[in-house]
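request received
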Amino acid sequence: MLSPLKVAGKIYWLGANDRKKHLFENIWPLPNGVAYNCYLINDEKTALVDTIESGVAGDFIEKVEQLLGDRPLDYLIINHMELDHTGEVKDILKRYPNVQIIGNSKTFKVVEAYWGALANLKQVEDGDELSLGYHKLKFVMTPWVHWPETMMTYDATEQVLFSGDAFGSFGTLDGNVFDDEIDFTYYEEDMRRYFSNIVGKYANMVQKAFKKLEGVPVKSVCPVHGPVWRSNPEVVLGLYDKWSKMEAEDGVVIIYASMYGNTEQVADRIARKIAEQGVKKIRIHDVSKTHISTLINEIWRYKGVILGSCAYNSQMFPLLEQLTRELEHMGVKDRELGIFGSYSWNGGGVKNLQKFQESIGWNLVSKPAEIYGIPTEEKYAQCDELAVAMAERLK
Ligand SMILES: Cc1cc2nc3c(=O)[nH]c(=O)nc-3n(C[C@H](O)[C@H](O)[C@H](O)COP(=O)(O)O)c2cc1C
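response:
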Protein backbone atom coordinates (compact mmCIF):
# COMPACT_ATOMS: atom_id res chain seq x y z
CA MET A 1 0.00 0.00 0.00
CA LEU A 2 1.42 3.41 -0.96
CA SER A 3 1.29 6.29 1.52
CA PRO A 4 -1.11 9.12 0.66
CA LEU A 5 0.60 12.06 -1.07
CA LYS A 6 0.60 14.81 1.50
CA VAL A 7 1.01 18.46 0.53
CA ALA A 8 0.83 19.95 4.05
CA GLY A 9 -1.32 19.54 7.18
CA LYS A 10 -4.33 17.45 6.21
CA ILE A 11 -4.13 18.23 2.48
CA TYR A 12 -3.52 15.42 -0.01
CA TRP A 13 -2.87 15.32 -3.74
CA LEU A 14 -5.36 13.25 -5.71
CA GLY A 15 -4.39 13.80 -9.33
CA ALA A 16 -4.05 11.63 -12.41
CA ASN A 17 -1.91 11.55 -15.54
CA ASP A 18 -3.09 11.66 -19.13
CA ARG A 19 -0.60 10.10 -21.54
CA LYS A 20 -3.16 9.25 -24.22
CA LYS A 21 -4.30 12.68 -25.28
CA HIS A 22 -2.41 14.14 -28.25
CA LEU A 23 -3.77 17.67 -28.15
CA PHE A 24 -4.76 19.76 -25.11
CA GLU A 25 -7.98 21.66 -25.89
CA ASN A 26 -7.72 19.72 -29.16
CA ILE A 27 -5.08 22.17 -30.42
CA TRP A 28 -1.90 22.22 -28.29
CA PRO A 29 0.43 19.18 -28.63
CA LEU A 30 1.18 17.12 -25.54
CA PRO A 31 4.43 15.27 -26.26
CA ASN A 32 4.94 14.75 -22.53
CA GLY A 33 1.27 14.35 -21.60
CA VAL A 34 -0.53 16.35 -18.92
CA ALA A 35 -1.49 15.84 -15.28
CA TYR A 36 -4.81 16.87 -13.70
CA ASN A 37 -4.40 17.71 -10.03
CA CYS A 38 -7.03 17.96 -7.36
CA TYR A 39 -6.73 18.00 -3.60
CA LEU A 40 -8.56 16.44 -0.69
CA ILE A 41 -8.57 18.15 2.70
CA ASN A 42 -9.28 15.47 5.28
CA ASP A 43 -10.06 17.70 8.26
CA GLU A 44 -12.91 17.72 10.81
CA LYS A 45 -14.95 18.82 7.82
CA THR A 46 -13.75 17.35 4.54
CA ALA A 47 -13.32 19.17 1.24
CA LEU A 48 -12.32 18.27 -2.30
CA VAL A 49 -10.71 21.13 -4.22
CA ASP A 50 -11.62 20.64 -7.91
CA THR A 51 -11.71 17.23 -9.60
CA ILE A 52 -10.04 15.85 -12.74
CA GLU A 53 -11.00 15.21 -16.37
CA SER A 54 -13.58 12.51 -16.87
CA GLY A 55 -12.29 9.10 -17.93
CA VAL A 56 -8.63 9.75 -17.12
CA ALA A 57 -8.59 7.70 -13.90
CA GLY A 58 -11.08 4.85 -13.58
CA ASP A 59 -10.42 4.68 -9.83
CA PHE A 60 -10.89 8.35 -8.91
CA ILE A 61 -13.92 7.79 -6.62
CA GLU A 62 -12.18 4.80 -4.97
CA LYS A 63 -9.18 7.01 -4.22
CA VAL A 64 -11.43 9.62 -2.57
CA GLU A 65 -13.09 6.82 -0.58
CA GLN A 66 -9.73 5.38 0.46
CA LEU A 67 -8.68 8.72 1.96
CA LEU A 68 -12.03 9.50 3.58
CA GLY A 69 -12.83 6.00 4.82
CA ASP A 70 -16.47 5.99 5.89
CA ARG A 71 -16.55 9.75 6.52
CA PRO A 72 -18.70 11.94 4.28
CA LEU A 73 -17.40 14.52 1.82
CA ASP A 74 -18.72 17.83 3.15
CA TYR A 75 -17.60 20.27 0.46
CA LEU A 76 -16.64 20.26 -3.19
CA ILE A 77 -14.86 23.50 -4.05
CA ILE A 78 -15.00 24.43 -7.73
CA ASN A 79 -12.21 26.92 -8.34
CA HIS A 80 -12.55 26.54 -12.10
CA MET A 81 -15.48 25.15 -14.07
CA GLU A 82 -13.49 24.07 -17.14
CA LEU A 83 -14.29 20.47 -17.94
CA ASP A 84 -10.80 19.10 -17.41
CA HIS A 85 -11.33 19.90 -13.70
CA THR A 86 -15.01 19.13 -13.31
CA GLY A 87 -15.08 15.80 -15.14
CA GLU A 88 -15.72 13.85 -11.95
CA VAL A 89 -18.30 16.19 -10.38
CA LYS A 90 -21.28 14.07 -11.41
CA ASP A 91 -19.74 10.91 -9.95
CA ILE A 92 -18.87 12.76 -6.75
CA LEU A 93 -22.49 13.93 -6.46
CA LYS A 94 -23.70 10.37 -7.00
CA ARG A 95 -21.38 8.97 -4.33
CA TYR A 96 -21.77 11.87 -1.86
CA PRO A 97 -25.27 13.28 -2.54
CA ASN A 98 -25.17 15.60 0.48
CA VAL A 99 -21.93 17.33 -0.50
CA GLN A 100 -22.16 21.12 -0.65
CA ILE A 101 -20.74 22.64 -3.82
CA ILE A 102 -18.77 25.83 -3.23
CA GLY A 103 -18.38 28.35 -6.03
CA ASN A 104 -19.18 31.95 -6.88
CA SER A 105 -22.18 33.35 -8.76
CA LYS A 106 -20.40 33.04 -12.10
CA THR A 107 -19.41 29.43 -11.36
CA PHE A 108 -22.99 28.49 -10.65
CA LYS A 109 -24.26 29.96 -13.92
CA VAL A 110 -21.95 27.58 -15.78
CA VAL A 111 -22.77 24.71 -13.38
CA GLU A 112 -26.44 25.11 -14.26
CA ALA A 113 -25.68 25.30 -17.97
CA TYR A 114 -23.94 21.93 -17.77
CA TRP A 115 -25.80 19.98 -15.08
CA GLY A 116 -29.07 21.80 -14.56
CA ALA A 117 -30.20 23.34 -11.27
CA LEU A 118 -28.40 21.53 -8.46
CA ALA A 119 -29.25 21.55 -4.77
CA ASN A 120 -26.66 22.20 -2.04
CA LEU A 121 -24.91 25.13 -3.65
CA LYS A 122 -22.94 27.39 -1.33
CA GLN A 123 -22.14 30.68 -3.01
CA VAL A 124 -19.05 32.54 -1.82
CA GLU A 125 -17.86 36.09 -2.42
CA ASP A 126 -14.37 37.51 -2.57
CA GLY A 127 -12.72 37.20 0.85
CA ASP A 128 -15.27 34.80 2.35
CA GLU A 129 -13.87 32.31 4.84
CA LEU A 130 -14.65 28.72 5.71
CA SER A 131 -13.22 26.76 8.62
CA LEU A 132 -12.75 23.03 8.18
CA GLY A 133 -11.41 22.64 11.73
CA TYR A 134 -7.63 22.81 11.48
CA HIS A 135 -7.61 24.40 8.02
CA LYS A 136 -9.08 27.88 7.58
CA LEU A 137 -9.93 28.59 3.96
CA LYS A 138 -10.40 31.91 2.23
CA PHE A 139 -11.81 32.40 -1.26
CA VAL A 140 -10.11 34.84 -3.60
CA MET A 141 -11.81 35.85 -6.85
CA THR A 142 -9.30 35.86 -9.72
CA PRO A 143 -11.52 36.29 -12.79
CA TRP A 144 -10.09 35.49 -16.22
CA VAL A 145 -7.24 33.28 -15.05
CA HIS A 146 -8.41 31.85 -17.33
CA TRP A 147 -12.23 31.84 -17.39
CA PRO A 148 -14.56 34.54 -16.01
CA GLU A 149 -15.53 32.44 -12.98
CA THR A 150 -12.04 31.41 -11.87
CA MET A 151 -11.19 31.82 -8.22
CA MET A 152 -8.42 30.60 -5.94
CA THR A 153 -8.72 29.07 -2.49
CA TYR A 154 -6.15 30.00 0.15
CA ASP A 155 -5.55 27.94 3.27
CA ALA A 156 -4.32 30.36 5.93
CA THR A 157 -3.33 27.58 8.36
CA GLU A 158 -0.61 25.97 6.22
CA GLN A 159 -0.37 28.91 3.79
CA VAL A 160 -1.33 26.82 0.78
CA LEU A 161 -2.68 28.43 -2.39
CA PHE A 162 -4.99 26.31 -4.57
CA SER A 163 -4.40 28.30 -7.70
CA GLY A 164 -6.38 26.62 -10.49
CA ASP A 165 -4.80 26.94 -13.94
CA ALA A 166 -2.39 29.63 -12.74
CA PHE A 167 1.11 28.27 -12.02
CA GLY A 168 0.36 25.10 -13.97
CA SER A 169 2.39 23.19 -16.52
CA PHE A 170 2.08 20.56 -19.23
CA GLY A 171 3.86 17.25 -18.57
CA THR A 172 2.80 14.23 -16.55
CA LEU A 173 3.91 13.59 -12.98
CA ASP A 174 5.89 10.40 -13.42
CA GLY A 175 6.10 9.16 -9.85
CA ASN A 176 7.44 12.49 -8.62
CA VAL A 177 4.62 14.91 -7.85
CA PHE A 178 6.15 17.61 -5.62
CA ASP A 179 8.74 20.23 -6.53
CA ASP A 180 11.17 18.78 -3.96
CA GLU A 181 11.00 15.44 -5.80
CA ILE A 182 11.17 16.44 -9.47
CA ASP A 183 13.99 17.50 -11.78
CA PHE A 184 12.54 20.87 -12.86
CA THR A 185 14.75 21.07 -15.97
CA TYR A 186 12.38 18.42 -17.34
CA TYR A 187 9.38 20.76 -16.92
CA GLU A 188 10.62 24.26 -17.67
CA GLU A 189 9.90 24.15 -21.39
CA ASP A 190 6.51 22.50 -20.87
CA MET A 191 5.66 25.07 -18.21
CA ARG A 192 6.45 28.06 -20.45
CA ARG A 193 4.55 26.47 -23.32
CA TYR A 194 1.55 25.90 -21.04
CA PHE A 195 1.76 29.51 -19.87
CA SER A 196 2.20 31.03 -23.33
CA ASN A 197 -0.40 28.85 -25.05
CA ILE A 198 -3.11 28.70 -22.39
CA VAL A 199 -2.72 31.46 -19.81
CA GLY A 200 -0.67 34.05 -21.75
CA LYS A 201 -3.68 35.76 -23.30
CA TYR A 202 -4.71 36.64 -19.73
CA ALA A 203 -1.24 37.78 -18.63
CA ASN A 204 -2.58 41.07 -17.26
CA MET A 205 -5.14 39.16 -15.18
CA VAL A 206 -2.29 37.05 -13.77
CA GLN A 207 -0.61 40.30 -12.76
CA LYS A 208 -3.88 41.43 -11.13
CA ALA A 209 -4.00 38.16 -9.20
CA PHE A 210 -0.40 38.77 -8.03
CA LYS A 211 -1.41 42.24 -6.80
CA LYS A 212 -4.36 40.78 -4.96
CA LEU A 213 -2.14 38.22 -3.24
CA GLU A 214 0.56 40.75 -2.34
CA GLY A 215 1.68 40.30 1.25
CA VAL A 216 -0.10 36.94 1.58
CA PRO A 217 2.43 34.35 2.78
CA VAL A 218 2.49 31.33 0.45
CA LYS A 219 4.39 28.19 1.44
CA SER A 220 2.79 25.88 -1.13
CA VAL A 221 1.19 26.39 -4.53
CA CYS A 222 -1.22 23.71 -5.71
CA PRO A 223 -2.13 24.21 -9.38
CA VAL A 224 -4.45 21.95 -11.35
CA HIS A 225 -1.77 20.88 -13.85
CA GLY A 226 1.89 19.98 -13.42
CA PRO A 227 4.16 19.84 -10.38
CA VAL A 228 2.83 20.72 -6.93
CA TRP A 229 4.97 23.34 -5.19
CA ARG A 230 5.12 22.47 -1.50
CA SER A 231 8.75 23.48 -0.82
CA ASN A 232 9.91 26.29 -3.12
CA PRO A 233 6.90 28.02 -4.66
CA GLU A 234 9.13 31.07 -5.37
CA VAL A 235 10.39 29.24 -8.47
CA VAL A 236 6.99 28.98 -10.16
CA LEU A 237 5.76 32.32 -8.82
CA GLY A 238 8.91 34.01 -10.15
CA LEU A 239 8.57 32.49 -13.61
CA TYR A 240 4.87 33.33 -13.93
CA ASP A 241 5.56 36.86 -12.72
CA LYS A 242 8.26 37.32 -15.36
CA TRP A 243 6.24 35.80 -18.19
CA SER A 244 3.04 37.65 -17.34
CA LYS A 245 5.02 40.92 -17.38
CA MET A 246 6.15 39.84 -20.87
CA GLU A 247 9.80 40.01 -19.82
CA ALA A 248 11.97 38.11 -22.26
CA GLU A 249 15.51 36.77 -22.76
CA ASP A 250 18.08 38.61 -24.87
CA GLY A 251 17.80 36.31 -27.85
CA VAL A 252 16.04 36.18 -31.18
CA VAL A 253 13.69 33.81 -32.92
CA ILE A 254 13.49 33.91 -36.70
CA ILE A 255 10.34 32.41 -38.20
CA TYR A 256 10.08 32.17 -41.96
CA ALA A 257 7.63 30.94 -44.60
CA SER A 258 9.23 29.60 -47.74
CA MET A 259 8.05 27.39 -50.60
CA TYR A 260 11.16 27.15 -52.77
CA GLY A 261 13.95 28.07 -50.40
CA ASN A 262 14.71 31.74 -51.20
CA THR A 263 13.13 33.13 -48.02
CA GLU A 264 14.80 30.36 -46.04
CA GLN A 265 18.22 31.41 -47.39
CA VAL A 266 17.53 34.95 -46.21
CA ALA A 267 16.65 33.65 -42.72
CA ASP A 268 19.99 31.83 -42.52
CA ARG A 269 21.88 34.89 -43.75
CA ILE A 270 20.24 37.16 -41.16
CA ALA A 271 20.91 34.62 -38.40
CA ARG A 272 24.61 34.36 -39.29
CA LYS A 273 24.98 38.12 -39.38
CA ILE A 274 23.33 38.41 -35.95
CA ALA A 275 25.66 35.70 -34.64
CA GLU A 276 28.65 37.73 -35.94
CA GLN A 277 27.49 40.51 -33.59
CA GLY A 278 27.92 38.18 -30.63
CA VAL A 279 24.30 37.16 -29.99
CA LYS A 280 24.26 33.59 -28.70
CA LYS A 281 20.57 32.79 -28.45
CA ILE A 282 19.28 32.50 -32.01
CA ARG A 283 16.60 30.05 -33.14
CA ILE A 284 15.22 29.59 -36.67
CA HIS A 285 11.90 27.90 -37.43
CA ASP A 286 10.06 27.03 -40.63
CA VAL A 287 6.43 28.03 -40.02
CA SER A 288 5.27 25.08 -42.13
CA LYS A 289 7.11 22.57 -39.97
CA THR A 290 7.14 23.83 -36.39
CA HIS A 291 3.79 23.75 -34.59
CA ILE A 292 2.27 27.13 -33.73
CA SER A 293 2.35 26.09 -30.05
CA THR A 294 6.17 26.05 -30.13
CA LEU A 295 6.37 29.24 -32.21
CA ILE A 296 4.25 31.15 -29.69
CA ASN A 297 6.39 29.73 -26.91
CA GLU A 298 9.61 30.89 -28.61
CA ILE A 299 8.16 34.38 -29.11
CA TRP A 300 7.22 34.50 -25.45
CA ARG A 301 10.78 33.50 -24.61
CA TYR A 302 12.85 35.89 -26.72
CA LYS A 303 12.89 39.67 -26.95
CA GLY A 304 13.82 39.67 -30.64
CA VAL A 305 11.40 38.34 -33.25
CA ILE A 306 12.14 38.28 -36.97
CA LEU A 307 9.36 37.24 -39.33
CA GLY A 308 9.93 36.49 -43.00
CA SER A 309 7.44 35.56 -45.70
CA CYS A 310 7.41 34.81 -49.37
CA ALA A 311 4.58 36.62 -51.14
CA TYR A 312 1.54 34.43 -51.53
CA ASN A 313 -1.44 35.59 -53.60
CA SER A 314 -0.73 39.20 -52.57
CA GLN A 315 -0.69 38.17 -48.89
CA MET A 316 1.83 36.73 -46.51
CA PHE A 317 2.05 32.93 -46.40
CA PRO A 318 -1.19 31.54 -44.81
CA LEU A 319 0.49 29.75 -41.90
CA LEU A 320 2.46 32.86 -40.98
CA GLU A 321 -0.75 34.87 -41.18
CA GLN A 322 -2.32 32.41 -38.75
CA LEU A 323 0.58 32.93 -36.35
CA THR A 324 0.37 36.73 -36.56
CA ARG A 325 -3.39 36.61 -35.96
CA GLU A 326 -2.86 34.45 -32.89
CA LEU A 327 -0.19 36.84 -31.56
CA GLU A 328 -2.54 39.80 -32.00
CA HIS A 329 -5.27 37.85 -30.27
CA MET A 330 -2.95 37.07 -27.35
CA GLY A 331 -1.70 40.63 -27.18
CA VAL A 332 1.99 39.79 -26.80
CA LYS A 333 3.83 43.03 -25.97
CA ASP A 334 7.30 44.58 -25.87
CA ARG A 335 9.12 42.74 -28.63
CA GLU A 336 11.76 43.98 -31.08
CA LEU A 337 10.64 43.09 -34.60
CA GLY A 338 12.47 42.55 -37.87
CA ILE A 339 10.63 41.88 -41.13
CA PHE A 340 11.86 40.35 -44.36
CA GLY A 341 10.43 38.65 -47.41
CA SER A 342 10.75 37.60 -50.98
CA TYR A 343 8.58 38.13 -54.05
CA SER A 344 8.37 37.82 -57.84
CA TRP A 345 5.95 40.53 -58.95
CA ASN A 346 3.82 42.77 -56.63
CA GLY A 347 4.88 41.35 -53.24
CA GLY A 348 2.44 40.80 -50.38
CA GLY A 349 4.43 39.16 -47.57
CA VAL A 350 6.32 42.18 -46.31
CA LYS A 351 3.40 44.54 -46.92
CA ASN A 352 1.14 42.49 -44.68
CA LEU A 353 3.82 41.90 -42.06
CA GLN A 354 4.08 45.69 -41.81
CA LYS A 355 0.34 45.86 -41.17
CA PHE A 356 0.82 43.28 -38.43
CA GLN A 357 3.55 45.45 -36.90
CA GLU A 358 1.26 48.46 -36.87
CA SER A 359 -1.51 46.48 -35.25
CA ILE A 360 0.58 44.78 -32.53
CA GLY A 361 2.79 47.81 -31.87
CA TRP A 362 6.15 46.06 -31.54
CA ASN A 363 9.31 48.14 -32.21
CA LEU A 364 10.50 47.78 -35.76
CA VAL A 365 14.31 47.50 -35.62
CA SER A 366 14.97 48.64 -39.22
CA LYS A 367 13.42 49.05 -42.65
CA PRO A 368 11.95 45.71 -43.80
CA ALA A 369 14.23 43.74 -46.11
CA GLU A 370 12.43 42.63 -49.24
CA ILE A 371 14.19 40.53 -51.86
CA TYR A 372 13.04 40.47 -55.47
CA GLY A 373 13.76 37.06 -56.97
CA ILE A 374 16.91 35.21 -55.99
CA PRO A 375 18.92 36.66 -53.10
CA THR A 376 22.35 37.90 -54.15
CA GLU A 377 25.20 39.48 -52.20
CA GLU A 378 24.05 42.91 -53.34
CA LYS A 379 20.44 42.31 -52.28
CA TYR A 380 21.61 40.96 -48.90
CA ALA A 381 22.81 44.43 -47.83
CA GLN A 382 19.34 45.33 -46.46
CA CYS A 383 19.18 41.99 -44.58
CA ASP A 384 22.57 42.65 -42.98
CA GLU A 385 21.32 46.06 -41.88
CA LEU A 386 18.30 44.42 -40.24
CA ALA A 387 20.53 41.84 -38.51
CA VAL A 388 22.92 44.44 -37.11
CA ALA A 389 20.01 46.59 -35.92
CA MET A 390 18.42 43.62 -34.17
CA ALA A 391 21.69 42.65 -32.47
CA GLU A 392 22.03 46.25 -31.24
CA ARG A 393 18.58 46.06 -29.59
CA LEU A 394 19.54 42.85 -27.82
CA LYS A 395 22.73 44.18 -26.24
C1 LIG B 1 1.09 30.15 -55.05
C2 LIG B 1 2.05 31.28 -55.23
C3 LIG B 1 1.59 32.56 -55.03
C4 LIG B 1 2.45 33.65 -55.20
N1 LIG B 1 1.97 34.91 -55.04
C5 LIG B 1 2.79 35.96 -55.25
C6 LIG B 1 2.31 37.27 -55.15
O1 LIG B 1 1.14 37.51 -54.87
N2 LIG B 1 3.14 38.29 -55.37
C7 LIG B 1 4.47 38.08 -55.70
O2 LIG B 1 5.19 39.05 -55.88
N3 LIG B 1 4.96 36.84 -55.76
C8 LIG B 1 4.15 35.77 -55.58
N4 LIG B 1 4.63 34.50 -55.66
C9 LIG B 1 6.04 34.31 -55.95
C10 LIG B 1 6.83 34.01 -54.70
O3 LIG B 1 6.48 34.83 -53.64
C11 LIG B 1 8.32 34.19 -54.98
O4 LIG B 1 8.72 33.27 -55.97
C12 LIG B 1 9.17 34.04 -53.75
O5 LIG B 1 10.50 34.41 -54.05
C13 LIG B 1 9.16 32.59 -53.27
O6 LIG B 1 9.95 32.48 -52.13
P1 LIG B 1 10.45 31.05 -51.61
O7 LIG B 1 11.51 30.57 -52.55
O8 LIG B 1 10.97 31.32 -50.27
O9 LIG B 1 9.25 30.17 -51.61
C14 LIG B 1 3.80 33.42 -55.53
C15 LIG B 1 4.24 32.13 -55.71
C16 LIG B 1 3.38 31.06 -55.58
C17 LIG B 1 3.89 29.67 -55.76
